[in-house]
Specification:
The chain is of the alpha/beta class. 43% of the residues lie in helices and 11% in strands. The chain is built from 10 helices and 6 strands; from the N terminus they run βαααααβαβαβαβαβα.
Length: 224
């Protein structure tokens, strides 16, 4: 396998936003005397297209409509405060450097919005150097687990699926990458660790991307 491109998920992979996102909803649920159901929350991870609405569910538990606007604003503020304390996840900087060193193309493939991705890349001082950034922008038809974003990224980079490696943290992301025919390395975080990344089809599952140096991955893929 000749690698020409690295395709990175964003939330939970480059930056651990997943734990903060869950914490924001946990805050609201606990303030109303309930616990966020983690099994239902798991269906939302890595996608914008899911059958479960946490706010509607909380209203059902409370038994009356809630002030959604003010609650969402407070939840978002709590989430952002937690995310701003986060840095690049372990191993990411090394893989970005390896891509530059080997002349590989780099893309972000995310079910989030372009604004969300750009905002955090600016803070992390990693906004430059991307060959493509593909986001769902609240369009369920583009969101993972559909392969739309990955296929779009391959087209923009002008590489074949067999020449790319995808890095994901969630089952929805893994399914999207594999549906596009891309070799997928899964690196779970605290939220996604027990969600069945191997069962979703990941080719490699790591505890941390730092556990697999880029040169070791290149050597392994050379034998594929």
């Amino acid at each position: 396998m000749r690698v020409r491109a690295f395709l990175f998920d964003f939330d939970g992979l480059i930056l651990d936003t997943e734990l903060a996102a869950r914490a924001g909803w946990e805050l609201l649920y606990r303030e109303h005397g309930h616990e966020l159901p983690t099994d239902l929350w798991a269906t939302l991870v890595g996608t914008t297209h899911a059958p479960w609405d946490p706010m509607a569910h909380l209203e059902e538990l409370v038994g009356e409509p809630l002030e959604r606007g003010s609650l969402n604003e407070r939840r978002y503020e709590h989430e952002i405060a937690l995310i701003e304390a986060e840095e690049l996840r372990p191993g990411i900087a090394e893989y970005l450097a390896a891509a530059r060193r080997h002349g590989l193309k780099r893309a972000i493939v995310s079910s989030s919005t372009r604004h969300w991705v750009d905002m955090h890349l600016e803070r992390l001082e990693e906004a430059a150097g991307w060959d493509a950034i593909c986001t769902a922008d609240r369009d369920p038809a583009r969101a993972k687990p559909a392969p739309v974003l990955y296929l779009e990224a391959l087209g923009l980079l002008d590489v074949d699926a067999g020449e790319a490696v995808a890095f994901e943290d969630s089952p929805n992301g893994v399914r999207a990458a594999k549906a596009a025919g891309i070799f997928c390395v899964a690196v779970p975080n605290e939220v996604t660790r027990d969600l069945g990344l191997e069962e979703a089809g990941a080719d490699i599952v790591l505890d941390s991307l730092a556990d697999l140096p880029p040169e070791t991955l290149f050597s392994r893929l050379a034998q594929e």
